[in-house]
């Protein structure tokens, strides 16, 4: 029955303007058909009149074209919610104190929390999330949310570079919460889907449905929030939803690759609200953490790999966890194909991780030149005593790169960039090292410069 | 189509009806006002498909015809004309010319074919009530404050018109508080209908100075309000309303008499300190004559005020100050009776020896 109406709608859509179609036919359905007496459900009596007076002919023809026998057509008011999602019947007990205080708990007879409904991927759990010094703070906050969502860490703002486990951690929160209380309404969505849904809802005039969908949630998880840039309307909508949920003490979880204040064009009010309950960062894992991750992964895959091989990979992959795991998988696959153990592969040079692949034909002058050009300075300007902040940063980046890429001694670097002594260089390198953990813009910049250097 | 009318009358009518047309309708024509002259009878109409406002504008002279004009533009143009001018609106094809003294403009209108037909209420089958305008205005204002704006519970976003024991009541609740008012104490016909709070706000706004009476007519899915020259038609909310009678507590432990002004002042003082937290205040009675209203917010300090009134028993309850102040403010009498109990039983407010208007608030737990 429903399909017949769909076909008819498809035909009607071609005959009238899109605005008219979405206004008048959105949310209609066939309620019943007895011997060709068809009853069509519409939103309210305003629609009944309009459809009967203006569109009866078109509807009749369209239905007949689907080979349906049509004797008469009638319209009946039928609320959209009634036909598809059953509304919660409001009962007297609903108004009791219990709902007043913990509106979180609600009976949900129909909810089967499938992936599609929550957007969660069940493979992400806290058990397979390797905890280290780089993420322990965020994980303990996550645990607290699982114990009592909507309370202490609300909103929970998690940020960190790509591939550090943001998605894993927030999905794990969702999955754990759901395990504890399957009736919770949880929804995980990357911001990109959020705004494309939003645009669709506006286009199809389903704004209300969109609103409802989000406003009835107990936990909302938004991933990759930084991609909101330039989507002002979506941002506004998100802000409204955010406020509504926050007021009801619903848990909101947001991830981003940087702090909201560092994202261009994010409304200040929203930025400050997002970090109300603090911002938690996932940092690059240290050597020990990386080893732990790889060991966990090896265990999970049931793979046999020498500790030395793990250490080698851990030492040489410095970008993020995703790359780390990627490299690890490649080596395992290769070892299977070639019939050698991972360590043998590494020793005989068949695998080369990361910087081992880079040509060493760069010299210090090239690095100085490239950094200077990147910051639109002359090498002379950059290697001066100027303390103007962008020049100083450029100089420190040069020191950092000279040290990391060429392995020059601090004294040598000092002469290259024209600073007094090696302690200044040590300070500069340390500063960049530290900043890199939190400052994703800096990280992007350095990656870009490196690309230019090796280009 | 042609009408001639004074600026102030027209501006007032347009401002009132154009509110619902200045929206974000997907159908462009819904942002227009329909002007229809049929047998010298002029009607200005707007609709957002949840409701429609019709103004039967009395004019000095007119010619038959029909046209739609962008609501916002026309309203702003007319409102900015000098007072007292005679405005003439005429349409030729889709060109609408507006003239007033030395001001003249041409607005691009749209033909009226696409403007939706409005649903009608058949007076023969409809249930109709008449209420004095002051009574209606006060009553609805008293009740509508308790309506919810939570779209996930549609029933609560409206005001429930309910006949019970031959009386007509208006009721609304958001789950935390409930307001109930008797509109008419003897009615013949029965009704159970939820009118969207939004539509009622429009009705309240449409009440003019010379409106004397409102006529309310219900059918199965519509309600119509007639207020003098304005008529408002709205859909009803298709949901079942909770059994509110069961929510009104009986036999509360204690009954107090309050002076409205004093109670509001005291509560506002306490609320200042409660602002940062959840806005909760504590009401505690101490026999024989003290009601203390206090709040504690550690960072600012605390507040404790007393009201002298006859007290028979020691009780303590915790309330949302915003709801409490709104409720106290809603009364049109200075003598309010408050009934409450210790713990979680809802508190009841009503006029002294008068239960036509009842306002109930759920207490907060600690």
In the residues of chain B, how many domains can be counted? 3
- The coarse overall form of chain A would be elongated
The CATH superfamily of the largest domain in chain B bears the name: DNA Polymerase III, subunit A, domain 2
User: Would you tell me which CATH topology of the largest domain in chain A applies?
Assistant: Rossmann fold
Quaternary organisation: heterodimer
Terminal CA distance of chain A reads 62 Å
Q: Can you give the helix content of chain A as a percent range?
A: 40-55%
Key phrases:
heterodimer, A: 455 residues, alpha/beta, GMP Synthetase, Chain A, domain 3, Rossmann fold, Helicase, Ruva Protein, domain 3, 4 domains, five-stranded parallel β-sheet, 22 helices, 8 strands, 55% helix, 9% strand, B: 366 residues, alpha+beta, DNA Polymerase III, Chain A, domain 2, 3 domains, eight-stranded antiparallel β-sheet, 6 helices, 25 strands, 43% strand
What does this structure look like?
- The complex is a heterodimer of chains A (455) and B (366).
- Chain A contains 22 helices and eight strands.
- By secondary structure, chain A is α/β, with parallel strands linked by helices.
- Chain A has four domains: 2-83, 2-Layer Sandwich (GMP Synthetase, Chain A, domain 3); 116-282, Rossmann fold, CATH 3.40.50; 287-357, Helicase, Ruva Protein, domain 3 (Orthogonal Bundle), CATH 1.10.8.60; 364-454, DnaA protein, C-terminal DNA-binding domain (Chromosomal Replication Initiator Protein Dnaa, Chain: A), CATH 1.10.1750.
- In chain A, strand 1 and strand 2 form a beta hairpin.
- In chain A, helix 1 packs across helix 3 and helix 20 (410-417) packs across helix 21 (422-438).
- Chain A starts with a helix and ends with a helix.
- Chain B folds into three domains: 2-114, DNA Polymerase III, Chain A, domain 2; 127-246, DNA Polymerase III, subunit A, domain 2 (DNA Polymerase III, Chain A, domain 2, Roll), CATH 3.10.150; 248-361, Roll (DNA Polymerase III, Chain A, domain 2).
- Chain B has six helices and 25 strands.
- In chain B, the strands form four sheets. An eight-stranded antiparallel sheet of chain B has the order 6-2-3-4-17-16-15-10.
- In chain B, a hairpin with a 2-residue loop joins strand 8 and strand 9.
- In chain B, helix 1 packs antiparallel against helix 2, helix 3 packs antiparallel against helix 4 (197-205) and helix 5 runs antiparallel to helix 6.
- The N and C termini of chain B lie far apart (66 Å).
């Amino acid at each position: 029955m429903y399909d017949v109406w769909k076909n008819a709608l498809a035909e009607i859509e071609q005959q009238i303007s899109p605005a008219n179609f979405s206004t008048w036919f959105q949310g209609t359905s066939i309620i019943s058909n007895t011997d060709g007496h068809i009853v069509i459900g519409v939103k309210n009596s305003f629609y009944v009149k309009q459809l009967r007076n203006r569109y009866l002919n078109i509807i009749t023809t369209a239905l007949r074209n689907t080979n349906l026998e049509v004797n008469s057509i009638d319209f009946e008011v039928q609320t959209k919610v009634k036909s598809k999602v059953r509304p919660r019947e409001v009962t007297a007990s609903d108004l009791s104190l219990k709902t007043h205080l913990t509106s979180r708990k609600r009976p949900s007879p129909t909810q089967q929390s499938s992936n599609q409904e929550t957007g969660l991927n069940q493979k992400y759990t806290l058990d397979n999330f390797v905890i280290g010094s780089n993420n322990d703070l965020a994980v303990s906050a996550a645990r607290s949310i699982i114990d009592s969502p909507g309370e202490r860490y609300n909103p929970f703002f998690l940020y960190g570079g790509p591939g550090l486990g943001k998605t894993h951690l927030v999905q794990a929160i969702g999955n754990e919460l759901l395990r504890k209380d399957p009736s919770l309404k949880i929804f995980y969505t990357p911001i990109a889907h959020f705004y494309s849904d939003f645009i669709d809802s506006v286009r199809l005039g389903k704004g209300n449905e969109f609103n409802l969908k989000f406003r009835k949630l107990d936990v909302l998880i938004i991933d990759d929030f930084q991609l909101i840039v330039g989507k002002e309307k979506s941002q506004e909508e998100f802000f409204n939803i955010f406020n509504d949920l926050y007021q009801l003490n619903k848990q909101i979880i947001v991830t981003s690759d940087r702090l909201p204040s560092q994202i261009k064009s994010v409304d200040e009010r929203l930025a400050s609200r997002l970090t109300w309950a603090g911002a938690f960062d996932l940092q690059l894992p240290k050597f020990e953490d990386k080893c732990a991750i790889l060991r966990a992964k090896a265990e999970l895959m049931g793979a046999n790999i020498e500790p030395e091989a793990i250490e080698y990979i851990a030492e040489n992959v410095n970008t993020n966890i995703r790359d780390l795991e990627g490299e690890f998988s490649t080596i395992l696959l290769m070892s299977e194909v070639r019939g050698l153990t991972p360590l043998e592969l590494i020793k005989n040079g068949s695998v080369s991780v990361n910087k081992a692949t880079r040509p060493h034909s760069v010299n210090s002058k090239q690095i100085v030149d490239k950094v200077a050009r990147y910051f639109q300075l002359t090498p002379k300007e950059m290697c001066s005593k100027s303390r103007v902040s962008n020049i100083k940063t450029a100089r420190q980046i040069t020191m950092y790169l000279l040290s990391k890429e060429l392995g020059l001694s601090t004294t040598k670097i000092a002469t290259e960039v024209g600073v007094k002594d090696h302690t200044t260089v040590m300070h500069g390198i340390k500063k960049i090292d530290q900043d890199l953990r939190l400052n994703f813009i800096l990280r992007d910049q350095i990656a870009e410069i490196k690309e230019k250097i090796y280009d | 189509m042609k009408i001639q009318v004074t600026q102030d009358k027209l501006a007032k009518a347009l401002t009132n009806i154009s509110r619902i047309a200045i929206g974000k309708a997907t159908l462009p024509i819904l942002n227009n006002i329909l002007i229809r002259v049929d047998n010298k009878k002029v009607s200005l109409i707007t609709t957002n498909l949840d409701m429609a406002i019709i103004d039967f504008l009395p004019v000095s002279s007119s010619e038959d015809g029909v046209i739609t004009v962008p609501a916002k533009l026309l309203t702003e143009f007319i409102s900015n004309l000098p007072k007292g001018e005679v405005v003439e609106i005429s349409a030729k094809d889709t060109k609408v010319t507006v003239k007033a003294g030395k001001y003249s403009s041409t607005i691009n209108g749209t033909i009226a074919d696409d403007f939706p037909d409005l649903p009608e209420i058949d007076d023969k089958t409809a249930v109709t009530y008449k209420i004095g305008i002051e009574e209606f205005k006060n009553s609805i204002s008293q009740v509508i404050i308790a309506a919810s704006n939570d779209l996930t519970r549609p029933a609560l976003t409206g005001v429930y018109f309910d006949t019970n024991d031959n009386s007509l009541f208006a009721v609304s609740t958001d789950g935390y508080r409930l307001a109930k008012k008797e509109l008419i104490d003897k009615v013949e016909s029965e009704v159970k209908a939820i009118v969207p709070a939004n539509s009622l706000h429009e009705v309240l706004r449409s009440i003019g100075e010379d409106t004397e009476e409102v006529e309310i007519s219900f059918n199965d899915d519509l309600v119509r309000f007639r207020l003098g020259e304005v008529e408002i038609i709205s859909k009803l909310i298709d949901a079942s309303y909770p059994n509110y009678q069961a929510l009104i507590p009986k036999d509360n432990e204690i009954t107090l008499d309050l002076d409205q002004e004093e109670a509001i002042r005291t509560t506002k003082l306490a609320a200042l300190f409660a602002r940062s937290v959840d806005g909760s205040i504590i009401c505690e009675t101490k026999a024989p004559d003290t009601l203390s209203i206090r709040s504690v917010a550690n960072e600012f300090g605390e507040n404790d005020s007393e009201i002298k009134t006859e007290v028979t028993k020691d009780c303590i309850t915790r309330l949302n100050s915003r709801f409490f102040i709104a409720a106290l403010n809603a009364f049109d009498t200075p003598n309010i009776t408050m009934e409450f109990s210790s713990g979680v039983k809802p508190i009841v407010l009503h006029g002294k020896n008068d239960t036509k208007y009842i306002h109930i608030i759920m207490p907060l737990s600690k």
